[in-house]
């Protein structure tokens, strides 16, 4: 039997099984084959083409660096309330080196990351993006920090997995990808080269990880993934089989505005320390830090399989931490926002009830025993600790009750971190400089000045670690906004589950 006969027989078996004809309706896939879009704008749905003027100087003055990303295992997700993910940890290292607080901006269901970047809602898109000419129409890219190959991935439930692109084209096995992905662009290129590939368009809201999950379940026959993502997914998903490589050595980089040369230079210097090409591009040189991240999230390490399970993650998207119910109950009874209390706990202890700081603060909310009437040993009890922490922050909120909501919370958080005395010194310094002491922006600037001798030598409470307090407030506010976005995503996921769309999964990112 020759090769053509084999292909014909396999096609017949696939048709008899109904495999080539059935794609579950819940995926809302388009049944027709993909057509080449008329314009790039149609593909990416760009509405903001002129970027705002926000380079590194403006970012540094604000003290906050905003990372645009998606909720998925290789970018950003919560592990028992703690923020993790390859992209998140790499960006966090950059912000630490530049003394910036980090805010995570999760792309919403109806939002476009390129628009968010260019309108100034974020400063970088960190989402495992391949550098493509289409994307360069709207954004600039940093130097690469990874090289990947694009691999066709099949379900092991189907009786035949083509080993070559030629066989894939002959069998007309539908390859399910998003129209706005780099994978789609590569498949179109292969068509132009003469390969009659069957391309199945899936919703833009489904990312590579979600598509791999559907392939593993047997709901999709094939998709395309970067080899590092396939390697990671195959450790916690059964039923995936690698097919032919359709693109080699794609460069992965961060997307930034094309009018931010200083930011680009700083990010490139940072990335050069961690990833650089040698004469042999197959073996780029990576730093120890980057190798640790790759080992943690992509390579043959059990770590991600231990704390990231897609089924669990999809079903518990609305759960922030192991203490959500307890925090919500205590916070609601005190009349304070439970998500802000959760953000405080993440900042104070990373949800470790046994945590103890070098200053002796203990428990989830890092209560200092000498400032509490609760017996020391009881402060390690999660409920006792949360109740005491909520009582303290509630007292601070009441102290600043005459302020508007945002300033009230900012001052209360600053007081929780630095103490009433240092905040009072900063407010007096703001008054001395003819600034409103009820505006956090003015007082945060004064707190930074209290690190300088010419200012703190006349302050009632002396030197203050102002940068720590300012970043503490900013990071909690930023985390709170991220938690809000996650809860919104969870609510939408629940709504789509009820309506029968997309199974029980949230929406994720394009690569």
Find the count of extended strands (DSSP E, 2+ residues): 13
Distance between the termini: 41 Å
For this structure, the CATH topology of the largest domain is Lysozyme
Radius of gyration: 26 Å
Principal-axis shape equals elongated
Number of helices: 22
CATH architecture of the largest domain: Orthogonal Bundle
Query: Roughly what percent helix?
Result: 40-55%
Q: What structural class results from the helix and strand content?
A: alpha/beta
CATH C-level category of the largest domain: Mainly Alpha
Low-confidence stretches: 1-42, 305-315, 497-510
Whole-number total of structural domains: 3
Describe the main β-sheet briefly.
7 strands, mixed
The fraction of residues in strands falls at 5-15%
What's the mean pLDDT score?
A: 83
Provide structural commentary.
α18 (405-418) crosses α22. The protein has 3 domains: 3-42 and 147-251, 3-Layer(aba) Sandwich (D-Maltodextrin-Binding Protein, domain 2), CATH 3.40.190; 56-145 and 253-315, 3-Layer(aba) Sandwich (D-Maltodextrin-Binding Protein, domain 2); 324-477, Lysozyme. By secondary structure, the protein is α/β, with parallel strands linked by helices. It has helices at 3-16, 40-44, 56-62, 86-97, 113-118, 133-136, 165-171, 182-192, 208-217, 227-236, 261-274, 288-297, 303-307, 310-315, 324-334, 338-349, 382-399, 405-418, 420-432, 440-449, 453-456, 466-499; strands spanning 64-69, 77-79, 82-84, 101-106, 124-130, 140-141, 146-155, 175-178, 199-202, 222-226, 240-256, 275-276, 285-286. It is 46% helix and 14% strand. A hairpin with an 8-residue loop joins β12 (275-276) and β13. The strands form 4 sheets. Strands 1, 4, 5, 6, 7, 10 and 11 form a 7-stranded mixed beta sheet that branches. A two-stranded antiparallel ribbon has the order 2-3. Strands 8-9 form a two-stranded parallel sheet.
């Amino acid at each position: 039997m020759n090769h053509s006969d084999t292909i014909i027989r396999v096609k017949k078996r696939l048709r008899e099984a109904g495999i080539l004809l059935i794609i579950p309706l819940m995926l809302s896939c388009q049944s027709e084959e993909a057509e080449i879009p008329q314009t790039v704008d149609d593909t990416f749905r760009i509405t903001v083409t002129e970027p705002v003027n926000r380079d590194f100087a403006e970012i540094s003055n604000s003290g906050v660096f905003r990372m645009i990303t998606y909720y998925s295992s290789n970018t950003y997700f919560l592990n028992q309330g703690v923020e993790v993910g390859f992209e998140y940890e790499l960006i966090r290292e950059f912000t630490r080196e530049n003394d910036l607080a980090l805010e995570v901006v999760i792309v919403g269901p109806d939002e476009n990351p390129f628009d968010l970047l260019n309108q100034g809602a974020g400063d970088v898109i960190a989402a495992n993006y391949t550098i493509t000419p289409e994307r360069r129409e709207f954004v600039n890219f940093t130097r690469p920090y990874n090289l990947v190959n694009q691999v066709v991935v099949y379900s092991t439930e189907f009786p035949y997995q083509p080993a070559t692109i030629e066989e894939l084209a002959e069998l007309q096995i539908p390859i399910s990808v998003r129209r706005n992905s780099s994978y789609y662009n590569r498949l179109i290129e292969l068509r132009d080269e003469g390969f009659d590939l069957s391309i199945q368009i899936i919703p833009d809201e489904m990312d590579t990880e979600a598509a791999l999950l559907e392939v593993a379940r047997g709901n999709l026959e094939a998709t395309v993934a970067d080899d590092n993502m396939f390697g990671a997914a195959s450790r916690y998903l059964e039923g995936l089989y690698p097919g032919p490589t359709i693109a080699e050595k794609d460069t992965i980089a961060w997307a930034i505005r094309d009018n931010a040369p200083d930011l680009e230079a700083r990010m490139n210097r940072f990335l050069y320390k961690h990833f650089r090409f040698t004469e042999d591009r197959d073996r780029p040189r990576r730093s120890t830090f980057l190798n640790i991240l790759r080992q943690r999230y992509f390579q043959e390490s059990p770590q991600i399989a231990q704390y990231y399970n897609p089924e669990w993650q999809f079903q518990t998207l609305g759960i922030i931490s192991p203490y959500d119910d307890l925090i919500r109950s205590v916070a609601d009874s005190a009349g304070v926002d439970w998500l802000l209390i959760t953000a405080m706990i993440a900042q104070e202890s990373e949800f470790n009830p046994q945590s103890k700081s070098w200053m002796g603060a203990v428990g989830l909310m890092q209560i200092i025993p000498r400032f509490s009437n609760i017996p020391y040993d009881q402060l390690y009890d999660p409920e006792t600790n949360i109740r005491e922490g909520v009582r303290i922050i509630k007292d601070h909120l009441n102290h600043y009750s005459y302020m508007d909501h945002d300033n009230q919370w900012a001052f209360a958080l600053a007081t929780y971190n630095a103490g009433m005395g240092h905040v009072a010194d900063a407010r007096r310094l703001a008054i001395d400089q003819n600034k409103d002491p009820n505006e956090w922006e003015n007082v945060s600037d004064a707190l930074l000045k209290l690190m300088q001798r010419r200012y703190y030598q006349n302050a009632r409470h002396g030197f203050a670690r102002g940068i720590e307090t300012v970043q503490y407030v900013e990071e909690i506010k930023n985390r709170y906004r991220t938690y809000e976005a996650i809860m919104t995503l969870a609510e939408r996921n629940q709504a789509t589950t009820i309506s029968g769309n997309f199974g029980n999964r949230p929406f994720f990112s394009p690569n």
